[in-house]
Amino acid sequence: MDTYGFTPHYFYTGSTSAPAFVLPLMEVDSWLTGRRGIALPFTDECAPLAANKAIFEKLFAAAIQFGRARQWKSIELRGGRDLFDREVPASVSFYGHSLDLSGGEKLLFQNVDGAVRRAVRKAEKEGVIVDVSQDSEAVQIFYRLQCLTRKRHGLPPQPFAFFMNIHRHILSEKRGMVAVARHAGKPVAASVYFFLGDRAIYKYGASDFAFQHLRGSHLAMWEAIKWLGRNGAKSLDLGKTSLTNEGLRRFKLNLGAQEKRVEYVLFDLRRNDFTTVNDGVTGWHNAVFRALPASFSRLAGGLLYRHWA
Fold this sequence. Notes:
The chain is of the alpha+beta class. The chain is built from nine helices and twelve strands. Strands 1, 2, 3, 4, 5, 6, 7, 8, 9, 10, 11 and 12 form a twelve-stranded mixed sheet that branches. The longest helix has 18 residues, at 136-153. The N and C termini lie close together (11 Å).
């Protein structure tokens, strides 16, 4: 909300002080992409908290009624397709991966692919060191690497204010951390994690491609996994992966992660029907953002992300 000005709306059963089942939505009001409800913007997966289909149908019907009154273009749910009838299509699908941390470091390292073990050992041999931090300096380091990574992928980086709000609301509250890999004092890779109770989420990863041979990203991930396990995490969600990104999928599987499908649902309020879309990861825009100077790409990210959501 602080970064993009989205408005939250919650559909629930029970009382306001103790809701039993919840469908959270954010209203995105954009002149470029239209006014719509999303559960939730910039999340990989956020399924409704509903015990069964009957309860969910009431929540979703209330959301549709509210959306029509607010003149929403659509309602998007990022997860929870199993709460709908079988004929409702997934609007877009991704791979989801999760890692069981409960077995301890020794078992985890045994279960990772040999290529990952070799990469971790190579990084250690090359003198790469990983620090885990929750301070704003680590966020700034991550952001510099994120700008390099997004340019390499042909995508604009999120606004710096977005990550500083992550620090303000999550990291400073001890519900997240940044793992920074350094070589000879220079940051070469970094990753951002959120956690609550015994569950953790790998949210963002970035690196300097010029130092890829040092395998800093592998060591940052491995040290983060160890840190999370030592601090009470029993599982690590590795986020969504585009069905076309076989390299990222393989990286997560090589960590020993379990794979599933993450399916979104999009209800078009104008057509009164469910619809499908492209995941938007690849396209002509990638070449444009690769060619843009870094300053213009950052400016574009600041302008566009509140419309993309």
